[in-house]
Write a structure and sequence with these properties.
With 326 residues, the protein is α+β, with helices and mostly antiparallel strands.
Length: 326
């Protein structure tokens, strides 16, 4: 059974005459064992309130402000417990396994997601998982976003993990994603090359840049076109956080349902009531980004064979495409 997550409560009343100070700086200096980075994550997670409202880390603390904060007290990473969570395992041998992760599942325990993660499920499934990562992330070679579904490779021992990680580092891993995007592409296939960097105005999001960030390359090919959307196949040459989502948004073709990057509103088409109703119906079918890690290929570290795994599209993805065809 998962550990019960408790919370530690804090309350600060700012005295008269207090000089202006950023909220994250104030809390970092007033909460025991807190760092500014940790405080920022708690603020972003909506665990800090100023006068009863959530604010940004950059908010300037004012005299007479009332600051209330909740600090989740999580299990230590090394104490992460096994949980009997169903896993869709499409391949397994004594060295590794391939999981078709469901949308909504986080890869490993972190802020606001201490239980119910892939790691919790893996610990229940197997006693053998690699330990190359820091505690709390056994077996995890790579990740995909919480609300992205699809294939992940998990290592059962450190040697296998290291060999797989080297392939990811060399960009020799085959990774094919399918996405439903807004709009009709001007070119049926192409390559998006743009650095990916964390957004300055929202630390949870990323954006493209000509000068800053990390080099990123995504290849795309349109599979099918609909009235105001397209089904697209994407191959990653690099693997940056939110890379596909950011790259497609940079072309003004955000992924359907991707609220963080503008895909959960009408991007193409009119704004008449009939269109709004249709889009709302589609968003109810796909209340997440319509992105699926469909194919994964690599050289098996032990057999030296080229292995390639493919997965079926999840039910919400299939229903969305069916509705778009109508």
């Amino acid at each position: 059974m998962a550990k019960l997550i408790k919370e530690k409560k804090y309350r600060f009343e700012i005295p008269e005459g207090k000089k202006k100070e950023r909220l994250d700086q104030y809390l970092a200096s007033h909460v025991e064992n807190a760092t500014r980075t940790k405080v920022q994550k708690f603020i972003e997670a909506g665990l800090v309130f100023v006068n009863g409202k959530t604010v940004k880390s950059s908010y300037c603390v004012q005299p007479f402000d009332v600051i209330e904060a909740s600090h989740p007290i999580a299990p230590r990473p090394e104490d992460t417990e096994p949980e009997d969570i169903p896993l869709n395992i499409i391949f397994e041998d004594e060295y590794l396994l391939i999981v078709n992760k469901a949308a909504g599942m986080v890869a490993h325990p972190a802020y606001a997601n201490f239980t119910g993660t892939l790691v919790n499920a893996l610990l229940h499934h197997s006693k053998n998982l690699s330990s190359l990562n820091e505690a709390g992330r056994p077996g995890i070679v790579h990740r995909i976003d919480k609300n992205t579904s699809g294939l992940l490779v998990v290592a059962k021992d450190d040697w296998t993990h290291a060999k797989l990680a080297a392939q990811f580092s060399k960009h020799s891993i085959e990774r094919e994603y399918w996405a439903v995007c807004w709009g009709i592409f001007s070119k049926p296939e192409g390559t998006i090359t743009a650095n990916v960097v964390r957004a300055k105005n929202d630390r949870k999001k990323f954006t493209t840049s000509d000068t800053d960030g990390k080099h990123a390359v995504t290849h795309y090919k349109v599979i099918e076109e609909f009235e105001f959307a397209s089904l697209v196949k994407l191959n990653l040459e690099t693997g940056r956080t939110h890379q596909i989502r950011v790259h497609l948004t940079s072309l003004n073709h955000p992924i359907f349902g991707d609220a963080a990057y503008g895909g959960a509103q009408i991007v193409y088409g009119n704004t008449l009531p009939k269109m709004k109703s249709r889009v709302q119906n589609l968003l109810e079918i796909m209340p997440r980004q319509a992105l699926h890690a469909k194919t994964l290929g690599f050289v098996h570290p032990h057999t030296k064979e080229n292995v390639r795994f493919d997965s079926e599209l999840p039910e919400d993805f299939i229903k969305l495409i069916a509705e778009l065809k109508k």
